[in-house]
Amino acid sequence: MPVKATNFLFSLLIVVAAFAAGRYAFPTSSAPAAAPEEIAVKTTETPVVSRADSPVAGSISAEDALAYTPSELHTIRLFENASPSVCYITTKTQRRSFWTRDVSEVPAGSGSGFVWDNQGHIITNYHVIRDASRAIVTLANGEDYDAKLVGIAKEKDLAVLRIEAPAGALEPIPVGTSQDIRVGQAVYAIGNPFGLDQTLTTGVVSALDREINSQANVPIRGVIQSDAAINPGNSGGPLLDSRGMLIGVNTAIYSPSGASAGIGFSIPVDVVRYVVPDLIRYGEVRRASLGVDFYRYWRGTGLAIEEVVPQGPAGSRGVRGLSQDARGNWVLGDVLVGINGKAIKTSTDYFLEMENFEPGERVTLNLVRDERRIEVEVELGSSVE
């Protein structure tokens, strides 16, 4: 082989070897370079996704969660945790045919409720099941159960139902407190507006200590006002705080049109916690009682006492009711004008004041007897005894 050809081949081999060595020592492929960048993104986002105040819903993977903001992830998780506790309530009533006189069941209405405990107790509004001959509870899993009425508190617009469902199908709602609620904090309402089950609306607490009228025409005080959209069918559903804790029961809306106008009212959960145990145990709220009935047609100041249970709290202390003299004329008895010095002018005043006491407590009754004021100390009894 000629010397020039040999030198050319030798030079070519040196160039090829140098090029190969350079590729091995300094790789230039773009594919491996993308991996460190992808890992860096995951490392940055994962702590945000796993934070306690911005949890990722169980149905969302860490990668899919990157498409949502921390606030959205929090709301998704809250709904997915709370919705199994919320149920759909439909009611039926009996109606007799005008022509055939046959009795049949017809739909009466619908509302919302939530699971209270593993014994199958369901909380809802009294007005949801009022006048119903039958109530059907549909759990979040789609199973229907006939409900039995356990107890009602018309003056608080609350009712307790019970269903025979397996414990595994019941998801009691976490119960919070309404003592530390603040105007401006976020709230979440879950219910069945217009029959559309498992609907979530959000808003803020817009005012506190509102007063609304109950089904018994007695004011409910301390009501929570929020701007979360509440519509017909939301009644009886839960109002939750940002931790997913029950803070109220949605009960009414203020709306000229009948639909949400941005003002909804919820019964505080502290009232629910006070009422529900008595409804479960007694079927009614165990209230402090004087053992008296008041004369409905009295038009003077205070409450005229009509009847007194002889051995009741007031009767055993000599409190008098209406009586008749030897000629059959009615004689006015005692008139209740105050309790512990606080003026009592109407039956509403009396009812709200008695809510401040428990059976067994002692109070002083301010009475008017024979046109003079007297005081009688009594030990309060119980309305369920």
From TrEMBL:
InterPro entries linked: Chloro_Bact_Ser_Proteases (IPR051201), PDZ (IPR001478), PDZ_sf (IPR036034), Peptidase_S1_PA (IPR009003), Peptidase_S1_PA_chymotrypsin (IPR043504), Peptidase_S1C (IPR001940)
Molecular-function annotations in GO: serine-type endopeptidase activity
Gene3D superfamilies in the record: 2.30.42.10, Trypsin-like serine proteases (2.40.10.10)
Leader sequence segment: 1-20
Pfam families reported for this sequence: PDZ_2 (PF13180), Trypsin_2 (PF13365)
UniProt keywords, alphabetically: Hydrolase, Protease, Serine protease, Signal
A GO BP entry: proteolysis
PDZ domain ranges (all copies): 279-371
Domain of life from the UniProt record: Bacteria
Family annotation (PANTHER family): PEPTIDASE S12 (PTHR43343), PROTEASE DO-LIKE 8, CHLOROPLASTIC (PTHR43343:SF3)
Family in the record: Belongs to the peptidase S1C family.
UniProt name for this protein: Trypsin-like serine protease
Source organism of this protein record: Neolewinella aurantiaca
